[in-house]
Amino acid sequence: MTALLRTILVPLDGSELAEQALAPAVAIARASGAALHLTRVFVTYDAPREMLGEGGMPMVIEQQLEQEAWADLKRVAERVATELPEQVRTDRVRTRPLQSPFGETAIVVDSLRRLARRLRPDLVVMATHARGGLSRAWLGSVADAFMRSGTVPTLLIRPRDERAATPVLFRHILLPLNGSALAEESLPLAQTLATLFHARLTLLRVIVPPHVIARPSPVTRVNEAHVAEEEAAAARYLATVKERVMAAGLSAETATVVAEHPARTILEYAANHETDLIAMSTRGLGGMKRFMIGSVADKVLRGAAIPVLLTKSAARNEGAAGRAAAERPASTP
User: Fold this and answer.
1) Which of 79, 133, 233, 296 has the highest CB neighbour number within 10 Å of its CB?
2) How would you classify the pairing of strands 123-127 and 7-12?
């Protein structure tokens, strides 16, 4: 089973690093025919009267910044439209005034989630650390928070200092699986991208070896018999998934690795096998839960030098995230 791609959402913040998410988004939109929505969230601040000064100068500056933001979004859209005629849309989102910059990330994330509920995108493509301080480049923290609080599959791009001269092509997609239904939720979209780009899929299972205490000493050793059983079970499981992938007309292979650290192993495998994309599922846990659980997906995302596609568990309750803002969106072709 594959996933349909009809709408792709790309949040921008005015920075060049954020715009590096455009290349893969354009490539996917071109291959799939999906509509490409470029959005910009403008955060407004409610300045106290004593700060306005003569002539209300802060308000004038705010208006100028907003006009520049929309002009920049239009410029980017016009440039992208030369590659994707009839497929590009822009979405301008203006938040209600904030009293403090400390709430900026939350209000931007909430605005993007509201927009996503309206547009119902099949994929969001974002840069992961395009921070810009006072220039209002906020995608570093926003990408992380949005990915954890929403349910839309998100392709996270690690920006580079220099723009890639070669076109974006996904030729080898790595799909780590642990045998659970949750992990397999990333499979339909991974298959879709593999179909669009004629890529091969590698289904990877990392087995963490169990340790037992060697009596009478407190020294532990690997339970090799248990590992052998796990390897055999993993091979059978991956073979069944491979059959389903190949039934969809795709090229697939399997790999089983015994290692202590799953995230590190996934990253090393990707680096050593010319992987272009890592596709994983996640529950999207945040805050203290994230640090307590030590999510494998989280560690892979933070250590990967290549794009990472994260699919959220459909069972996760989207309503758990707070809603801290209201905005007035407007969509234009």
Assistant:
1) 296
2) parallel
As given in the structure block, the two tokens for residue 58 are: 């802060």
Model confidence at 113: pLDDT above 70: yes
Which residue did the predictor score with more confidence, 137 or 179?
179
CA dist 276 → 23, 172, 236, 306 (Å): 14, 5, 26, 6
**Considering the chain, what percentage of its residues have pLDDT values greater than 90?**
51
CA distance 147 to 124: 9
Mean pLDDT along residues 86-107? 87
Rounded to two decimals, the pTM is 0.82
DSSP 320: G
Indicate whether 277 pLDDT > 90.
Answer: yes
Q: Which pLDDT score is estimated for 326? A: 37
DSSP for 209-245 reads: PPEEE-TTSS-EEE-HHHHHHHHHHHHHHHHHHHHHH
Q: How far apart are CA 230 and CA 237, in angstroms?
A: 10
Q: DSSP per residue over 77-134, as a string?
A: HHHHHTTSTTTEEEEEEEBPPBS-GGGHHHHHHHHHHHHHHHH--SEEEEES--B-GG
Give the sheet arrangement for strand 200-207, strand by strand.
251-258, 200-207, 172-176, 277-282, 308-312, 154-157, 123-127, 7-12, 35-42, 88-94, 330-332
CA distance 250 to 243: 10
**Residue ranges of the chain assigned to CATH 3.40.50.620:** 7-165+320-332, 172-285
Strand pairing class (7-12; 35-42) = parallel
- Residue 90 has a pLDDT of 97
Q: Which fold has domain 7-165+320-332?
A: Rossmann fold (3.40.50)
Summarize the confidence of residues 90-113 as an average pLDDT: 86
Q: ω before 216 within 30° of 0 (cis)? A: yes
How many whole angstroms separate alpha carbon 152 and alpha carbon 105?
A: 18
In CATH, what number does 172-285 get? Answer: 3.40.50.620
